[in-house]
Each structure stands twice: as structure tokens, then as C-alpha cells.
Amino acid sequence: MSVDTRVDLSNGLENVPVFIERSSAVMTFPEFQYSTDNIQGPGCTADPTEVTLPGCSCRSRSCCAESCTCLRTRGRAYDSAGALLTLGPTDSGYCSPVFECNALCACSDACSNRVVQAGLRLRSEVYGAVNKGWGVRTLEAIPRGTFVCEYAGEVIGLEEARRRQLAQSSEDNNYIIAVREHAGTGAVAETFVDPAAVGNVGRFLNHSCQPNLFMQPVRVHSLVPRLALFAGRNIDAQEELTFDYTGGYSNRLPVELLSTQRDADIRASRSDGLQRKECRCGADNCVRLLPLDLSIINRE
Ligand SMILES: C[S@@+](CC[C@H](N)C(=O)[O-])C[C@H]1O[C@@H](n2cnc3c(N)ncnc32)[C@H](O)[C@@H]1O
């Protein structure tokens, strides 16, 4: 792929271009297929592009929490400007699910419950981030709570995630993100997304121990969640965009896996094949090692 400032990495697929900084041309640019949406990968039993959720029958421009069936149970997720209302943990310790109005809903495209599905709105640039390979910075200021982009890629099953993680060498970038959600009755739903071969601008986001983005699973047309990234604080133009690869509080392991994870962490901090990489985020609270979700490879 040729690298030029005016090249739109998404090739017109996004609402706004995703630029590549010209001075970063010395670094090799990875080959991958740009996709704005998740696609079904090996081991994923549901097609993320299929419309499977029921729609509301609100004939209004924008839905009201009192009458809309999409909003009635869980309440409003966004304010009237589209900013995410809850940017913190719920009592369960997991993030609260967000359901947007979908293709089967009778409300208009201007409904305030359609944010992530509207796609990228902010201009950003992929650039050479010192000592971290490629990174993403915003070209405009972003208010807290604003939707920034998805972490889109192949949605894969646990076995496939395990196979891919085991095939990685210590030099390879790790792209697989596992997200866990409380699914009621004590069950925990897990989603694995790998944007290495098919993905969007999210695949270039680096980790920080003090990130400015926050990951929130959002369901639009399908039960398969989209991993949406929102601004966790006000962000200035030119700041690097980062998120916590562990998913922070929203990604706690189920209790039965906690001891496995602890043992695995100890094993991996020794020098086996899955040596963890040094974290170069530069934050005051940096834990010095990049997170690696060892529960994927240590699960029977
Ligand atoms: C999802 S990719 C992010 C984009 C990547 N920097 C690139 O060049 O394509 C994840 C990889 O980026 C690098 N990375 C991300 N955050 C980092 C950090 N805080 N410190 C050092 N390397 C980091 C690691 O090599 C990691 O495996």
C-alpha cells in the first residue's frame, strides 16, 4: 500500500477520511482489508451483519425513553447531543449493555438513539507513534462522551482466538481484544474481535495505562456487539487516541477464571514464548507491561 498524507486509508468507506501522516512513510505499512463493520470469522456462530434484533414502532423523529421498546428497559444511553451518559462501572462490575434503534425500528435516522451506527464523524490520522509503531491521533478536539470509532474486525470464537494467539511470535503485534459482559443470571458473554487481517482505523490504536478512550459494547442490528470507543475525557486536537487493552473494569474475568489468570500471569512474566511486551505509554501509573489476555490461551 502506498503511503501519502492525502490517501484515505478507508478508501472512501468512512464518512470522513482517515489520513496517514507523510513523514511516517519510512515505516512499512501493514497489508489488511479495510472494513467499517465487524465481519463473521471462524467460530463466530452469528453473522454480525444480519438484522436479528426486534425494532420499535415509534413514529416520532426521535424516541422517548417512556414509550420506546428499545429504551424502556435500559433507559437512555446517550444525551441529545449523542454523548454517552454512563462512562463508569455499573454495580455488577461489568459495563452496561447499550442497544441502539435499528434497521427494523420505525423512528427516523435522526433518532438520538442512533450514534455508533452513524459511523465515523471525526477526522483522524494514522502516524508513527514514538516506540509504539503506528498510532492514531485526532485532528479535532473531542468532547467527553463523544463516539470516536469502533474496534472493528473479524468476530471469532474462543478456540480460534486461542489458535491465533498461540501462533503469534513475541515480535508480532497483538490485535485480539476480548470483551466480557454480564449476561444476567450470573452468565458472562464473551466477544473476541481480531482486526489484524480485516479491520478499521481502530486496529492502529495503541494501549495506555491512562487512556483517553473508553470501550463500550453497543448492539445495533444484531446481538453481536460492536466494540465502540468513546472519549473518556475532553481530548485536544493532535492528541494520540488510546484505550486500555484490558477493557478496564468492563473486562473483569469471570470468578472461576481468576486464579487461572493469576497463575498464567506469573508464568508469562517469566521468559516463555508469550513474553509480554514493554508498555511505552509514558503514563505516571504505567504498569510497564502491555496487557495480554492469557485467559484465552489458558482455557480448557
Ligand atoms: C492493536 S496494535 C496497535 C497498532 C500498532 N502500534 C501498529 O503499529 O500497527 C497493538 C500493538 O501495538 C504496539 N503497542 C500498543 N500499545 C503500546 C504501548 N503502550 N507500548 C508499546 N507498544 C505498544 C504493540 O506492539 C501491540 O502488540
UniProtKB/TrEMBL annotation:
One of its GO terms (molecular function) is histone methyltransferase activity. Gene3D superfamilies: SET domain. This is Histone-lysine N-methyltransferase SETMAR. Keywords: Chromatin regulator, Chromosome, Metal-binding, Methyltransferase, S-adenosyl-L-methionine, Transferase, Zinc. PROSITE patterns: POST_SET (PS50868), PRE_SET (PS50867), SET (PS50280). Residues 118-246 form the SET domain. Residues 54-119 form the Pre-SET domain. CDD domains: SET_SETMAR. Residues 275-291 form the Post-SET domain. It holds the Pfam family SET. GO terms for biological process: methylation. Its main location: nucleus. GO terms for cellular component: chromosome; nucleus.
